[in-house]
Amino acid sequence: MHPKRKKRLTLILFLMAGLSIAIGLTTYALRQNISLFYDPSQIASGEAPGDVRIRAGGMVEEGSVQRDPDSLRVTFRVTDFESSVTMEYTGILPDLFAEGQGVVATGRLNGDRLFVADQVLAKHDENYMPPEVMDSLEKAAARAESNTAQSIPEY
Amino acid sequence: MFPEFGQFSLILSLLLAILLATVPLAGSLAGRASLQAFARPLAAGQFVFVAIAFGVLTYAFMVDDFSVAYVANNSNSLLPWYFKFSAVWGAHEGSLLLWMLILAGWTLAVAIFSRRLPAVMTSQVLSVMGMVSVGFLLFLLMTSNPFDRILPNVPTNGADLNPLLQDFGLIVHPPMLYMGYVGFSVAFAFAIAALINGRLDAAWARWSRPWTTVAWAFLSVGIALGSWWAYYELGWGGWWFWDPVENASLLPWLAGTALMHSLAVTEKRGVFKSWTVLLAILTFSLSLLGAFLVRSGVLTSVHAFASDPTRGQFLLALLAITIVSSLTLYAFRAPVVHSRIRYGSASREIFLLLNNVLLMAAMLLVLVGTLYPLILDYLDMGRLSIGEPFYNLTFSPVAIAVGLLLGAGIFSRWKKTDGGWLARKLLWPAAVSLIVAVLVPLWMGKFEPWAFAGCFSAAWIVSATARDLLDKSASRQGRWHGLRRQSRSYYGMVLGHLGLALTMAGATVVSNYGVERDVRMSPGDTVSIENIDFAFVQIGERQGANFRAETAQVDISRDGRKIATLYPEKRQYTVQRSVMTEAGIDAGLARDLFVALGEQVGDNAWAMRIQYKPLIRWIWLGSLFMAAGGILAIADRRYRIREKVPVKPAALPDREPDAGRAVPEAMS
User: Which domain holds residue B485?
Assistant: First the structure.
């Protein structure tokens, strides 16, 4: 083969190999590290898979925050005003975590459908609502509205 | 001073920008010097009026003019004056005005420092900058006017600046970052101008190199400041979260780094021209993408500004117009001639090409991780997030590979490098790095494969750079003479590479050997980490200017000997009624000790986060080195001598637009 063509061929082969390794690694890494968002209703209806890292969020229910007296473990319920899910977290909660505030947590559902969070995010602005939570609240409200709309003729 | 003056001068500067975008360009295409002569005065005028607008807004903040909506939303009469000043860029509208001021400033700088460029080039570059200005001024005036008034019911006091932003970090972080983002518009303008007049040659690369390097240096400092600020102000001791907005600043940095290296090849060897132009376009497009991500409200992030869909649409349109028009221009005008310059398989050209491949790979990884969730969400295919592990898994190997390549590349020569010779050169650095990579885990007491690889790569960069410096400075008149003989741009490169090694070493060690513990503590309790005792002595209250704080006293000692006393705080800001954590940090070059006070968890107990962070300062120190290297490189003599010597027509032949595309200059 012509030396120049040979050089070009090696270069192309080299690039192809590098590219396929990169794409393979990236898709593998992506598949391992994606966490989907589920709202409390989806979790209550069993739509969310157990033992996979997922995200969940909603409003922290009033009066639901309970602290363990000896450790940093805390449990609270998160709701979309339709269903709610109980979460457990060990560690320091963010500054703006409070009852009645929107939060998004990342973690796993265990066998008892308890959401064990390893990360809890609350936003740094008291008027700010995570878009996921906003979205799910709107959906839940829409469902509630259509339910009442349907139930009116039954009267 | 009426705020309307600010708006008025913004409109004036928009008119000037429109003229700047058209008149000099038309003049250069028609060959009319009289029209091209407008470029510099227009650039100056645009800057003056944007500066007046910025001054008016600053004045409104200083005198607490709460009739201006933006001031009322982001300031308060209790705020100290320096925070009133930095509050000017504390939210969307004002930060965009700062962006615009910096853009006008870069345009002015190009007008001032381009005296030795051919008039055609200057007027085209300034025209392209003018087009970018038109885009941003329209954006500012149409969607985000900072001078909107609340009349007639003027609030008696403002809503205060977000407490997170009441910090030294905010005063310096955005201006530095914007200097970088916007600075890449100069490299972009040079690339577009070169495409328009077909003069893609070594001279073009030499002109745009210093601008690219300065912008890159600013961006490096800006990113490091952001990371440092997140570390101490967000309260929890992380230094990089792979937050989409952080990624948005990393993307142009990676592309800009690639551009810097590719420009070096284009200047020295006259090859990679099309690629360099493409990179310049890409780097600026990524800056615009960053602006879009931050300002459109598509992200969940600390940085995200309150969203307004029209802003997002406008920025998306701006981004699309920029990319489509510059790529169209590229398709028509990029050099089609195959360069006949030869280079061998181990030449410096190849090493720099591989550098670009790796940096692009890193950039694409971050881009995929950032955009993938957004695209899926937009298509309504579910909301998902891509976590830190994705980036750690994919970005780290690429970063390590960049380090390994760099060490070998330093020794390589243009055109051709002898493989055996290169291998012998690398023997010594390899030995040193192996020793370091084994010693660090031994010293830290735990073997981690990533720590080994990261330390090896960092030590490899340092030892190869040192070896190269020793080789180059060998002189019969003594080492000192040899060292002095090296150019500033060489020292700039050395500093920049050492900076990368520092950052890499810091990031590796702190992520593998940092200790973080959340504990429940009552006054009187002691916790030990790495033989260091953290004693929670007491907790009290204090009153700040616009906040009330609970302050804990934590005494730190080692073997009974006292090291430091830290006062971590939990602040309650009165106006915005928000809570902030102020960590107590004992900073050191070798390690940081970090204590943050969490919430009260019992009658007499608090949550505390205690951290031991080895080498974390190296991360930011490294980026300062990189920036210093960049500044040193552009102070090189070869960029300055030409200023004194009047440009001879022969030196820069006034070729027809097509002439530049025919034969690469280095061929002649």
Answer: 425-514+622-634
